[in-house]
Structures are given as structure tokens and as C-alpha cells.
Specification:
By secondary structure, this protein is α/β, with parallel strands linked by helices. It is built from 10 helices and 13 strands.
């Protein structure tokens, strides 16, 4: 591999890491990111492998005055972590998979996926028990184009307000009365021990989450074979198979960061089920799709193929929204 311009190259051979070396785990500095990174560090400690956290501030953490779509997309939450991997400043990075683009930088790979936490959406409000009970004109805070479209589809009479920041910041703004309701990933609330803050937990049959929601992934350099082997025990096969389907669906659609896309794959008894949707950004229309398929003897390949085929079949119906 040719050296990447401007990146410091390590003098030691990759894959030759001493067994007693402390791993460097890169993470964002939010409370949720640290909790998620600690989950990985604790698991590694249980196998006798020491691990130090390296906290990095990402562009997504710094840019809070506009939506992610306007700022450049979800990849802003992981770019600095990936740059640190390529510079050999860290050995692994922990990501919320809903924030990870389908294309990774050359030289990097996702090597393990932790067991999926509850993927459902949480509605949080002091003014209503459900979205339907909010009064007309109520302020709903979100910066997600998916959530904006889903709210507008069901309640076009509500006032959508830009809401950025970590979970604590969003809850604090809600509690201060800056908005009447917000939506959060229930997985994040649970990991923070704040599950009771959910006013309503939305059924996936009625409200599809972000693709990858609830799954933590670990990214490494492709050449770090020893790190890959160390992390193998963390991988949850059903979560990985479901995620492969969801990311293949997303990649096949090839929408921009302004395209509202939702979906969820589930694996049970050798069967893969998937439901997905693409919405008009203003919530005025949507197109849904679903399938159930047997995974067979090559479940990962089958999941990716099924997700890709589903996305390609849906693409002509939603082309006008993908190009926005």
C-alpha cells in the first residue's frame, strides 16, 4: 500500500503487536460515546487485554448551528477517528453504526459488531404522552432529516425545530422548555441509564428507525490482523447479519445525506426479515418495502444480496428524492 499523503506512517509492522501492549481505543467525548467505549474496554479487560481511551472531538461535535445534512452528513461524527486510525494514533474506534457511511476510507474495515441494543425510537415530552396528543403548532426538536420527514408525514401541523448536541444537551433543552417534544434513539437512553425518560417507545411496526440504529461497530486498520483476532469474540452474528442487510440496502439506494431513509432487519431461526422506507423530505409522500428470506449456508452473503436487491428494486420509485 502506498503511503497516504500527509499521514505519518508507523515504522513497526502491522499485525505484529505484542500481546502485552495496551490498545488505544478512539472515541468521541460525549457521555454516551464514553459509555459505549467503556463497554468495549471492559470486555477486553475481561480477556486480559488492557485498553486506554483516546478522546477525540469530531466535526459533528463542533458544528452545532446547523443540521448534519447542511454540514456534510453523518460521517462528520467519525472522520477524525478514522484519520487517527490511518495515522496509527489509535488501534481501534467504536462507532454507533447509524453514523457510519457505507463506504469506508481505503485501508480501514469494520471488524466486529456488538449485540444490538433496542433499535426503537423514543418520544420524549412533558406536554403529551404521544406524538398524536401534541397540540397543533407544538415545537418538536430534531436535526435528523429522517425524523423530520416522519414527523411531518404524521403531523404536518407541528413546528419542527433544529436540535443538535448530545443526549444530555437535548434533554436539557427539552426540560428548559425550548421545545415541547424530542425524539431520541432508545438504545442511547438505555445505555445511559435514562430509559425512564422515554414518554413513549415507538413500535418498529409503526415507526422505522435509522438504518444501523442500536448497533455498535469497531473499526480498525485492515492490516492489523492481531487486533482483528483480539476483537473477534465481541462480534454478535445476528446483529452483524442484520446490519449487512441494512447497509447493503442503503448503499444500493445511494441517497444523499438529505434523503430520509429508514429500515430494520431482524434475524431469527435462519430467516431474515426486513422493512424499509424512503420518504419525501417534506413528509408528503413515502415508499415502503419489505421481504422475508431464508439465509441458507452463507448468511452474510445472503443478507447483503437481499438488502442490495431490495434497495435496487425500490430505487426507481424514489429516484426523485434520492437526487435532492
Amino acid at each position: 500500500m502506498r503511503p497516504l499523503p500527509g499521514l505519518r506512517q508507523s515504522s513497526k509492522p502491522f499485525g505484529a503487536m505484542p500481546q502485552n501492549r495496551t490498545l488505544r481505543l478512539g472515541t468521541r467525548g460525549s457521555k454516551l460515546a464514553l459509555v459505549q467505549a467503556e463497554m468495549v474496554r471492559s470486555a477486553l479487560a475481561g480477556r486480559g487485554r488492557s485498553c486506554d481511551l483516546v478522546i477525540l472531538k469530531t466535526s459533528g461535535d463542533r458544528i452545532l448551528d446547523r443540521s448534519l445534512a447542511d454540514a456534510g452528513g453523518k460521517g462528520l461524527f467519525i472522520k477524525e477517528l478514522e484519520d487517527a486510525l490511518l495515522r496509527d494514533d489509535i488501534d481501534l474506534a467504536v462507532h454507533s453504526m447509524k453514523d457510519v457511511p457505507t463506504e469506508l476510507p481505503a485501508g480501514l474495515e469494520l471488524c466486529a459488531f456488538l449485540k444490538r441494543e433496542d433499535p426503537r425510537e423514543a418520544f420524549v415530552s412533558h406536554k403529551a404522552r404521544t406524538l398524536g396528543e401534541l397540540p397543533a403548532g407544538a415545537r418538536v426538536g430534531t436535526s435528523s432529516v429522517r425524523r423530520q420527514a416522519q414527523v411531518a408525514r404524521r403531523r404536518p401541523d407541528l413546528n419542527l425545530v433544529l436540535l443538535r448536541g448530545n443526549v444530555d444537551t437535548r434533554l436539557r433543552k427539552l426540560d428548559a422548555g425550548e421545545m415541547d417534544a424530542i425524539f431520541l434513539a432508545y438504545a442511547g437512553l438505555k445505555r445511559l441509564g435514562l430509559g425512564e425518560r422515554a414518554t413513549e417507545i415507538l413500535s418498529v411496526s409503526d415507526w422505522l428507525p435509522s438504518l444501523g440504529q442500536g448497533v455498535l461497530g469497531i473499526e480498525i486498520r485492515k492490516t492489523d490482523t492481531s487486533v482483528r483476532e483480539m476483537l473477534g469474540f465481541l462480534n454478535d452474528d445476528p446483529s452483524e447479519i442484520a446490519l449487512l442487510c441494512e447497509r447493503a440496502f442503503q448503499a444500493a439506494l445511494d441517497g444523499s445525506c438529505r434523503t430520509p431513509i429508514a429500515g430494520l432487519a431482524q434475524v431469527e431461526d435462519g430467516m431474515l426479515s426486513f422493512r424499509g422506507e424512503v420518504l419525501a423530505p417534506d413528509g408528503s409522500d413515502f415508499a415502503a418495502t419489505s421481504f422475508t428470506a431464508a439465509l441458507g449456508h452463507t448468511p452474510r452473503e445472503a443478507a447483503e444480496r437481499a438488502g442490495r436487491d431490495c434497495g435496487l428494486a425500490l430505487k426507481p420509485r424514489v429516484a426523485k428524492w434520492l437526487a435532492l
